[in-house]
What we know:
single chain, alpha/beta, about 10% strand
Amino acid sequence: MRLQKYLLSLGLICSVFVVVLADQNNITKNPMPKYLDWSSVNLNDLSHYKFPKDFLFGVAIAEYQNSGAQHVPSNWSEWEKGEDHIKEAQTSGKSCDHRARYKEDLVMTKDLGLNSFRFDINWALCEPEQGKWDESAFTYYHDKIDCMIKLGIKPMVTLHHFVHPIWFENLGGFENEENIAHFVRFAEKMFDQFHDKVELWSTFNEPNTTVQGGWLRGVFPPGKQDVQLAGQVYVNLAKAHIQTYQALKKRPGGDKAKIGIVFQYLIFEPFHEEEGVARSIESAPTWYLTHVMTEAFFEFLKTGKFHFEARPLVNTMMFGGFSLSNLNPVKQEIEYEAPNADTWKASDYMDWVGLNYYSHVLFDCTSPTKPAFRENDIPTDMWYAIYGEGMYHSIVAMSELGVPMYVTENGMADNDDSRRAICIQRNLYALSRALKDGYDVRGYYYWTLMDNFEWDEGHLVLYGLYDANRKLKEGAKTYAAIVRNALGTLKILDTVSDMSLPVGNAALSIA
């Protein structure tokens, strides 16, 4: 994120929101999440991490982030060409060249002891021109999935991970409801190709991030800052999910497939915990950010009813994008009800839900241009701290959907690999506690396998278990130890330090 601009904008709106506070009758006043005394927990004791033997442990990647813009034009390959769209004018290039080296990458996955791999099928590769399918792309994905199966790795497929063909973008993408049919047709084509090899499917990765990046902050394509249009795109993504889910369920093999949607659960919170002027000033902007970036779409998933408060002036103060229309101080409400919303059950429109969880975001009105951290926080290389407790609370919140859950992304940007191990430990400890308390979570996927192209951040933030040269990082060994101990794939280990990680053994399986 453009951190300085973003936090400075939050500071500018503090005074505006003092007035807006009077219109906050519907604010949810949740108590602050509990902070654990981590010093009382020996996170190196592997007995703390209890998981079922059929639990899925994996990594998640995105095709574009790992293979780059080298193959076909897409909304992102065109976006990269724009001035100041990517930090330091970086480009994805070949990134990790995953398309050419996927076998190595799957071997590395297996060598960590993992049993699942989450990836997307890049629509731009498969249908580079409208109505013209590229059979070589189908062959690539068949071969990759076959390799997973041979290695004992369960595939999880995402159908849209921010990237789509440039022809679809030129038609207006998801701004136009009539374009939904193009996506449904693509999804049906992919399902017909791969349903006999893939059980776990998701329609969209993070529709809320798609909207905030492309229509609120303007740092993803199409690079707009139009809060009313953002609300309409949300509605069209909701409709696209419903239509795609229903269409795939009707296809041959649809009754056996498990089809869901992946959602980032991100909460913005006041830095000041005690009631007072500072907390009052912080409450309104953090409420608004949580509403537009998380709660509005999440409420739709729960209830089938979408209610989005578009505040153009407030959004402009937060994210920029000054124009006459964006200076409108009047609140506008965008609403949509799904068919049968009055009898809505989430399980009628998804078989599972994916939780992408990284942290929460604190806003300190007394220092609005800087990231806010509390005492004893461990910062990441992004704008938030390691916050394992939030994993538990996000699972509790997402469980309201009443469907099985997978943690489809979790990890941290850690360029010197000094904090990755503790991030993994705290989050898996919290996940293990949620399982103990009866929450139905069936898998965990670390983001990501290796350092790659992180969208508008370019190559500057490093999330990988391996570096871009495919060298294993020390922090990754903690994940491998917990997984291998939990699944019983190695002898029971007393501590992480007892672990000796073999590398390269899985290559024998696909030789």
